[in-house]
Structures are given as structure tokens and as C-alpha cells.
Amino acid sequence: MKVESFFSAAPHKSVSEDSIVLNEKINVYGVFDGATPLMPFKDENGMNGAYLASNIFKDYFLGLYRSNHSLVEGIMAANRMLREHMEKYNINQEKYENLWSTCAAIINIEEEEKISYAQLGDCMIIAEYQTGTVKALTRDTVKDISYRAKAYREELRKQGVNIPDEEYYHDRTYQLLFNRSLANMEHGYTVANGKEEVLNFIQHGQVNISEIKTLLLITDGLFHPKYSIEEAFTKIQTSGLHAYSNELEQYEKRNNLRSDDKSGIMISLCDEERSK
């Protein structure tokens, strides 16, 4: 295999809330994107809940020395560690806006000529097949969350639930607070936040190694406003993660767009690996 990785904090941040894992001992690779907290909290090292969540997941998967359980089981184990860390710092986990949370995209290249994958949120896994077809293996559940949240509020009002008028949610803070309450719900989005219900929303599956030429794992900071996720894959494959990221950051700067932390892993499977 040839593995290329990239990891960079957004220009306005001193520390990235993303993390990546390259566990070559057991061929587990992943990217994690901590959700920027809505409530102020910093630990004794000055780190917020987003950084802590993504790095708890990174440390868990990096520490594995054998893949004797599934990626789904691994996500749930890391999710329990996340909950325990919040308990340590006396975080009120009844309020969703207090929760530390992270999106995730993880793969395990297994000995049985299979590639397992698991995903939460808007971290994405894209595959190039031997046929040349480029296809996302996962779905971005964060996309259009504000639209779905508004539709859900309208439905609640029809049911007689007393919630504020839409003008109230024109305030970005109140909108985000409501969105966070939709974590791991059918009309919401998926995320690891210490809650057990995440188990029901993990996207996971397997593909045959023989079918795959290249795999790309990215956080949403590498999404390009002009390109589909498949087009972004092609651009990254052509220029490499570092050059693509620099070009995207310059595009964001020229167009006054918000720049996010950027992390990615591109794995090219050589002929020898595919023929095992």
C-alpha cells in the first residue's frame, strides 16, 4: 500500500479539532472531526471538547494492537471512553449542547481480502474501483441539517408543541442549539457524543479488496464549494492532499469563505496487495 496523509489546523485556530489515525500494525486508518462546542469548557491543558472528543477516538484506534472486533464495536468502545471523560469533568450530559462530540470515518484493511468501513457525520470515505468508477461509500448526514431541523420544527408546531417562531432561529446560536438536539435522530445527523443511541446510526459495510484501487478518507474541511465529493477525489488524486488543501485554502481566502481544519488519508492499493 501507499499511504498519504495530511493534517492542518484552520488559519484562525492554534490547534486543530480534527485528528487522524494511521495504525499500520493492524491496517486501521481514520479521520475524526470534533464538533466545535457551543458551551465554554477547557481542560487543564486548555483544550476544548471538540479537540478532546476527536483525540479520544484517535487514541483508542491508535492503541489497538489487534483487530479482534469490528469497527462498529470500536466506535462504541471509544464512545464509552468519551462519556467517561465527560463524567470525569462533571459535564452535564443531559443537555446536548454540553456534549463533546466527533464525526468519524474509519477503515480496516483485513486479512480476509475485505475492507471494512464505518462512518459518522460528515467525515467521508470515497473509493475508486478497478473499473475507474469513483463512488462515496458513505453519506454526509450533516448536509442540509438546518433545512431538516426547520421542517421538523414545523411538524412539531402542527402537533401542538410549543416552540418559538422561526424568527427566533434566525439567531445562529439558537439554530445551532436546536440542531445539536437532533444528534442521532432519524431526521437529524449522526455523531459520537457519548450517548448509546449512536449504535443505531453508524454507517458501516465491507468491500472486496480486489475491487478497490484507491480509498480516500477526509474531514469536511477538504470539501470544495465548487466540486462534488467525487470531483474533489479526482482533484486530490491528481495533485495530492497537500497541494489540494493549499489551493482550497487560497480559494476560501479569495472568496471570504470560512476555512475549516483539513485532514485526509489517501490509500493506494498496489497490485501485490490486491492479488493476495
Question: Top keywords for this entry?
Answer:
Protein phosphatase 2C domain-containing protein; 2 domains; 5-stranded antiparallel β-sheet; disordered C terminus; PPM-type-like_dom_sf; PPM-type_phosphatase-like_dom; alpha+beta; Phosphatase 2c, domain 1; globular; 276 residues; single chain
How does the SSE layout of this entry go?
Elements: E1 2-8, E2 18-23, E3 28-34, H1 49-63, H2 71-88, E4 102-109, E5 114-120, E6 124-129, E7 134-136, H3 145-158, H4 172-180, E8 203-208, E9 212-218, H5 229-239, H6 241-254, E10 262-268, H7 271-274
Helix pairs in contact: 1-2, 5-6
Structure, explained:
- Pfam families: PP2C_2.
- Residues 30-235 form the PPM-type phosphatase domain.
- InterPro entries: PPM-type-like_dom_sf, PPM-type_phosphatase-like_dom.
- This is Protein phosphatase 2C domain-containing protein.
- By secondary structure, the chain is α+β, with helices and mostly antiparallel strands.
- The chain has two domains: 2-139 and 191-274, PPM-type phosphatase domain (Phosphatase 2c, domain 1); 143-188, no CATH class.
- 31% of the residues lie in helices and 23% in strands.
- It has helices at 49-63, 71-88, 145-158, 172-180, 229-239, 241-254, 271-274, and strands at residues 2-8, 18-23, 28-34, 102-109, 114-120, 124-129, 134-136, 203-208, 212-218, 262-268.
- The chain has a five-stranded antiparallel beta sheet with strand order 1-10-9-6-7, with helices on one face.
- The longest helix is centred in the N-terminal third of the chain and has 18 residues, at 71-88.
- It is globular, with a radius of gyration of 19 Å.
